[in-house]
Each structure stands twice: as structure tokens, then as C-alpha cells.
Amino acid sequence: MTEAYTIFDRKRVKSHRDRAAAHAEEYTFLLHEMVARLSDRLEDIKRSFPLVLDLGAHGGQLSSHLPNLGTIVQTDLSYPMIHQANGLRLVADEELLPFAPQSFDLVTSVGSLHWVNDLPGTLIQIQRSLKPGGLFLASLPGGETLKELRHSFEQAELEISGGLSPRVSPFIDVKDAGSLLQRAGFAEPVTDSEILTVSYESPMKLLRDLRGMGESSALITSEKSIAKRALFPKMQDYYTKHFADIQGRVTATFEIITLTAWKADGDR
Asked: How many Å apart are CA 144 and CA 170, to the nearest integer?
């Protein structure tokens, strides 16, 4: 991996998931939304998948939702998280897959690939791990995700310091996702997105939920030294003023991108 691709601190990603594992089922609404979309997609595909890799499986939500899918190998960066899954499971990094080429009939990933530094490289590894004619299905947050939180942090920091530092992770655009699938050698790539709008009591309740999901920022870029006691009240004030309803509840946008692609039958 080149230094140019290093956006996320993978140790922080792991530690966030380790911490979230203890109460993971309390904060899985977004994960279950993604699982439901992948399940719907699989129901439309009339074929069997004897051996499946679920990459970045969290606590095994996909395998629990699809108990008759086939033999599922589940991986996650976090041992405490993957330890909650039933069946075949192991700790593995999505950036360095420990599987032989042409191992799986289906590779899935739900809510994990947005923390990968070299996404093109990971997609190439996934494509290689599939048998000819194999299927790749993934669901991950898209570019519109948390746009209100991102904008509110930006405005708060501009007001305090006159500058900006990234505080909300970047997410992939749906069009870029399709291009990356093609670059990785997949055939018949299809990408689509759906907007999910969630109402919260306050911006801080949103941040607590993100922490509970293990989705706190893991950006490597150093944040400017603005005390949280100055920044967070400004962020909350702006968020509430611009993104609250008449009851005072704030809106948070989550864009769910679903990827579908095949490995060509003749592709070894």
C-alpha cells in the first residue's frame, strides 16, 4: 500500500470496533438496514452459493439473517466483534485477504469497506478470491452520509479558528463505486443508492450512536487543536438551528450504496 492511500488509522478502526462489541446489538439499526438490502438482492438471484465469504462481518448479522445461504466464512478486523458470530469465523484485515485465488462462490461485505484505505486494491483481492462466475455483493455508506454533521463541524470550526480540519470521514460516491468495480476487473457492475433519514434528540445523541456502532472517525489527518468544549457547543448550535424540525429533533442522513458485480466465467 502506498502512503497516498493511507487515510484511515486501521488500529483506531479496530479499537473502535473492539470497544463497540460489548454493546453492539444496541446500535445495529444501520447495519440491519444494509443487511436487508443485500438479502433482497440475493433473493432476486436464482442460483446457489456453496461457499461464501462475509468480509468485515461484525457480529455475524448477515449469516444470522440468511441461515440457508451456504457455508459462510466470516471475518472481521476485531476479535471481540467477530467472536459474537456463530459458525466459521476468523480475524482478518480487509486490506490483506488471507485466502487463495478462486476460493469462493460469493463474497459479501456489509458496512466495512468504507474504512479501507486502498479500496481499489481490496476490490482486486476480492475479485481474485472469487471462482469464475462468482458474485460480489456489498453495502456501505455513500457520499451523502452525515452531511449535516460534516457541515455543522465545518461551520463551527470556521467560526472559531477560520480554518478547517476533517472531522467526519469521507464516503464514496455511487458513480465512483461503479468505476472502481470495473477497474478491479468485475463484469456487469451495478451500483445504486438509497437515502435513509434518521431523527435524533440532539447532535450529541447522534455522536453517541456513532460511537456505539464503532463508527467514530478514524482519520489519520491531525485535527487542529480546538478544545472540544469550544467546538462541540458551536457545532450543536449550528446543527440544531439548521437541521432541526419544529419539535427540536435533528435530522441525520445516511446514504446506503449497494454494489453488485460478477467475476466473468472465463476470468481466472
From this structure: 9
Is 111:16 a contact under the CB 8 Å cutoff? no
In the chain, where are the structural domains located? 3-262
What are the grid coordinates assigned to 191, written together?
Answer: 451500483
Greater confidence (169 vs 71) lies with: 71
The region that residue 256 occupies, defined by phi over 0 for left and psi between -120 and 50 for alpha, beta otherwise, is: beta
Element of type H or E holding 205: helix 203-213
pLDDT, tens digit (0-9, with 9 covering 90-100), for 39-86: 998 988 888 999 999 999 999 999 999 888 889 999 999 999 999 999
How many residues are present in the chain?
A: 268
The dotted CATH code for 3-262 is: 3.40.50.150
**pLDDT for 171-215, tens place per residue?**
999 989 999 999 999 999 999 999 999 999 999 999 999 999 999
Q: How far apart are CA 138 and CA 38, in angstroms?
A: 7
Q: 194 φ, ψ to 5°?
A: -140, 140
Average pLDDT, the chain: 91
pTM strictly above 0.90 = yes
The order of strands in the sheet holding 130-141 is 88-91, 71-76, 51-55, 104-110, 130-141, 250-262, 187-200
> Which SS3 state, helix, strand or coil, does residue 134 take?
strand
Question: For residues 8 and 206, what is the distance between their CA atoms, to the nearest angstrom?
Answer: 21
Q: Is 36 helix (H, G, I), strand (E, B) or coil?
A: helix
